[in-house]
Amino acid sequence: DKDFCPSLSLCAPFLSISGHCRSYNMRLTIEVIQQARQYVNAIRERELDMRGYKIPAIENLGATLDQFSTIDLSDNEIIKLQGSAPLRRLRTLLLNNNRIMRVSEDAGNDFPNLENLILTNNRITTLSDIDALASFKKVIRLSLVGNPVVTKEHYRLYTIYKLPKLRVLDFERVRLKDRQQAAILFGGEEGQKLIASIAPPRGESSKPAAATAASGPTPEQITKIKTLIANASSLSEIERLDQALKTGKIPQELLDSESVTPMEM
């Protein structure tokens, strides 16, 4: 059944397919990406294997040059699911056995065609993070098995409601009856009140963090930086732009291209 077996890696998420042990604990640099194992997997898709490096954060993915349909980042130390560069070719992202507890609200924007998102054995706790997963517009197979969130009341129906294209959730098929129950439970005014009670918006109590974020790049600048990464002609340029995205220090050429400058104001 193609719904249940999109990749050999999905069927055996806890097995090492690389044939050797890794225990490096390193950043996901351009060099790591270049030296990582790559191959054609069982369903004839190009796969990049970066399992077990103890990588703490997703970064520099622009260095893949969008050449892979599957990226395996299982068995690392990643804390937050976020994008770093647009990868339109990517269909499967494997993140088993990490420490992911947060999902960036716009993470899915960098993976516009992702269909399979495997987050087995992470630390996602709140239904509010399911809201963030809804940014993955085309995901049809999702696994959150082994995350605390699966014990929350209404977890399954809420996830189905928020990700309407899902066909398989936690390796169990989503049926028409499930969709209908989710629509009844969360539809209408009473449904919205229930959502507000079980999945309140994140970050409202963190005003200092909000003030810090306000001093960083604007959403428009972030979009421009990601576009520059996608169109970069060298790996050094990708690394420089990715660093700007993480630190909030805007490249001078981007500032020069702004239509409104302080002098004009």
Structure, described:
- Residues 2-21, 205-214 and 259-265 have low confidence and may be disordered.
- Strand 1 (37-40) and strand 2 (46-49) form a beta hairpin.
- By secondary structure, the protein is α/β, with parallel strands linked by helices.
- The strands form two sheets. An eight-stranded mixed β-sheet has the order 1-2-3-5-7-8-9-10. A two-stranded parallel sheet has the order 4-6.
- The chain contains ten helices and ten strands.
* Number of H- or I-type helical stretches: 10
What structural category characterises the helix and strand content?
A: alpha/beta
Classify the oligomer.
Answer: single chain
Q: Report the sheet-strand fraction.
A: 5-15%
The whole-angstrom Rg is 19 Å
Helical fraction: 25-40%
N/C terminus separation? 60 Å
Question: How would you sum up the global shape?
Answer: globular
Q: Please outline the major beta sheet.
A: 8 strands, mixed
> What is the strand tally?
10
Q: What's the arrangement of strands in the largest beta sheet? A: 1-2-3-5-7-8-9-10
Query: In terms of per-residue confidence, which ranges show pLDDT below 50 for 5 or more consecutive residues?
Result: 2-21, 205-214, 259-265
Average pLDDT rating: 82
Order of helices and strands: HHEEEEEEEHEHEEHHHHHH
